[in-house]
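Note to self: user wants both folds in one dump. Writing first protein now.
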Amino acid sequence: MAIASRLKHHLDAKGLPFDMLAHPYTATASETAEQAHVPGDHLAKSVLIHMEEGPFVAVLPSHMMIDLHELQSILHRRLGLAPEEEVTEVFDDCEIGAAPPVGVAYGVPVVMDKQMMGLDEVWFEAGDHRTLVHMKGRHFDRLMSGAKLGSFCCH
């Protein structure tokens, strides 16, 4: 099991308890939830979004998709999905598609869908396609306390 070094440093600095969950290699968040036997609405998926001012991380449940139009309305900015080069630049210690939702560990702001708040437990990518971080929901809420909240999901 591997955890991205910047993520590990940030979690340790916050002093929030967490554990790790290994699972078979998966390519999508939905596959990860299935293979790791965790509820899709408790698996936080992160998507790097590009804006003129710089990138940010959008965090939402793994089984949902981003409604970019709604997200633009919330942020009052034009935006789009970040190109792969930008993703590898920001998450330089992670595999493509396995970025954790903890943008602050990578120097980027976070906007999180309200559905991820107040859960009993939360899982999220540790930086590779075989490992999840697991923590109590109240600890995840504290970890993500600086995130802007909104409703921007669709099926």
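First done. Writing the second protein, which came from a different request thread.
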Amino acid sequence: MIHENCIDPLPAVQSRHNTRWLTICGLMMAMNVALSSFGLPVPGGHLYLNDIIIVTAALILDPAGAFLVGGVGAFLGDFFFYPLPMFVSLVTHGLQAMAISYMAHHCFKGNRFLGVASAVLVGAVIMVTGYSLGRAYVYSTPAYAWIKLPYEILQALFGVICGPFLVWKLKLDEKVKKLIDGKY
């Protein structure tokens, strides 16, 4: 029984993120896990295409959503299929996605192309540097990191080219915003 002079001990929590936002993040995380579960065979390992979805999500979502998709999604993909570098993936792809999202939405507001181009290039540098340092640490040899460096650069370039193309050509940013706002 509620008395008139009682104060509600659990006030409603106001949040910018809603269930639709969480669902979009979950869907993109699943796509990240799927794209990180298989790779194109290259000398010394595999070339993974999950940077495409990481960059796409980072250009569409806010930094928190980008971290969920990029960092947590890559972490889960590694956890399920190849757990050794999963923490490297969490930090590297998480920072990459957050940096891209923040820069694309807040830098060079007058010139969207320049903002997106600088954001994805900074993200590519973060990814290549993070994975090179992470591989040198995880595998205890910088030589392995040097062997994989060209393929890390190629993976980053896939994301740099395909991510913005998907967002602009398919107008994914507008469609996802409408989905999150409930206008579809």
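Dump finished. Worth passing along: The domain at 19-181 is CATH 1.10.1760.20 (Arp2/3 complex 21 kDa subunit ARPC3).
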